[in-house]
Write a structure and sequence with these properties.
421 residues; five-stranded mixed β-sheet; 15 helices; binds histidyl-adenosine monophosphate
């Protein structure tokens, strides 16, 4: 017996129905916002991911050499691939570009509930818009997706990493180390690094500022702590709140949180994370923000912002809140009775399917009563029993599986009977 590799999952039909439900709500909403779908390869050259983050990222990747000796990696996210695609092929298109993708991504992580090595993301990016309206638009799509799935217990935390970067008078690499230590709340590393950089005095305000969260008054508190620096960054968040209100995103859907630092190195401005409190340790269902990657890949500077929702976690949250609508049941199951009925039954099956109905047929050659048991087990709404004599008379027996009632109907009214009843 083989097992799936550590940190991966098989998804059965019931799981997939739930996953498609959640995914389709995202796709519908993204399309209604004017986003269009793009797809990029599942693996990329390793350099695409190390270009911004350095070689340290390799231990978090599925990196390998192919038979031609090329250094490759399975994608750990969509953003880098989409920006590569943008810089090489899409950059002359009218801006802004609003792109979404869904699919599997891979990270070499310690697996646990809700944390896998292969997982799935719903991803959206806006490239080349103005910063503020684009940030508001991605936040509205991220929060709106959760509402469209029916989730009630959703809370976004919105920060601005630009403020922290502005407060750190170091070169980008050193900033990254500091930001990582803040993201992980690893204050030992934070202090050691600040000592190395000769700015131990920043430790206290930094620790304090990442603890500040709440409504706009939290922004005042944080601004005071940073003694007037980064006024623009706080003003930006206030303006964002104003726009979100116009989107119908209510104040109870989010809070400001100066502690949102994000684990990825490319963020430069507004950053956010969304939690579903029902999920325990791995409760973060999504995250994103404004970033700068096009420049790293040789493109010109444009505003870039986006997010990814973790599909696996969203489905767990939707399950916990029981918001998933049941998948559409099979409309009918066709039961030919006797050898002579087989061919005609397949013709009828084919015409029902052509009419857009979901219809299955006995592939085993069971007797009628076993077949009715099977129709019941697979959740068919109707069973259509076709005996040789009935067929000759142009008729069929239709059984309503839930009610247990049978009717004799003319074959030429079968579609309406199944569809309408
Ligand atoms: P991220 O925060 O690394 O952002 O991932 C987004 C979401 O993917 C997380 O909030 C979480 O729900 C889910 N996720 C992450 N790791 C795992 C895992 N091991 N197992 C299950 N789910 C997981 C990004 O990936 C950015 N590319 C988002 C972005 C797009 N920023 C700008 N544009």
């Amino acid at each position: 017996m083989f097992e799936p590799p550590r940190g991966t999952n098989d998804w059965g039909p019931e799981d997939m129905a739930k996953r498609r439900f959640v995914e389709s709500r995202f796709v519908q909403l993204a399309e209604s916002f004017g986003f269009r779908e793009v797809a990029t390869p599942t693996f990329e050259s390793l350099e695409l991911f190390t270009a911004k983050s350095g070689l340290a990222i390799v231990r978090e990747l599925y990196a390998f050499k192919d038979q031609g000796g090329r250094d490759l990696a399975l994608r750990p996210e969509f953003t880098a691939s989409i920006l590569r695609f943008y810089v090489s092929e899409l950059r002359s298109r009218p801006k802004p570009l609003k792109l979404y993708s869904t699919g599997n991504v891979f990270r070499y992580e310690e697996p646990q509930k809700g944390r896998y090595r292969e997982f799935f993301q719903l991803n959206a990016e806006i490239l080349g818009g103005a910063a503020l309206p684009s940030d508001a638009e991605v936040l509205a799509l991220a929060i709106g997706t959760m509402r469209a799935i029916g989730l009630k217990e959703v809370r976004a935390r919105i920060g601005n990493i630009g403020i922290l970067r502005g407060f750190l008078p170091f070169k980008p690499d050193d900033q990254s180390v500091i930001l990582h230590s803040l993201d992980k709340r690893n204050f030992e590393v934070l202090d050691a690094e600040l000592v190395r950089l000769g700015r131990k005095d920043l430790s206290k305000p930094l620790r304090k500022v990442i603890g500040i969260s709440g409504d706009t008054s939290a922004l005042d508190e944080a601004a005071e702590l940073l003694s007037g620096a980064a006024r623009d960054g706080f003003e930006y968040l206030r303006d964002l709140a104003g726009l979100l209100e116009s989107y119908g995103v209510s104040r109870s859907d989010y809070e400001f949180d100066m502690g949102v630092v994000r684990g990825l190195d490319y963020y430069t401005g507004m950053v956010f994370e969304v939690d579903s409190p029902n999920l325990g340790a791995e409760k973060q269902v999504g995250g994103g923000g404004a970033y700068s990657l096009a420049e790293v890949f040789g493109g010109e500077r444009v505003a870039q912002t986006g997010f990814a929702l973790g599909l696996d976690r969203l489905v767990m949250a939707a399950d916990a809140e029981r918001t998933i609508e049941p998948a559409r049941a099979l409309d009918a199951y066709v039961i030919p009775i006797g050898e002579g009925a087989q061919k005609r039954a397949v013709e009828i099956l084919t015409s029902l399917r052509a009419a857009g109905l979901g219809v299955d047929i006995d592939l085993v050659g069971r007797g009628p009563s076993k077949n009715l048991d099977y129709a019941n087990a697979i959740g068919a709404r109707y069973a259509i029993l076709l005996g040789e004599r009935e067929l000759k008379a142009g008729r069929a027996t239709v059984r309503d599986m839930a009610r247990g009632e049978q009717r004799d109907v003319a074959l030429d009214t079968l579609v309406e009977t199944i569809r309408g009843a």
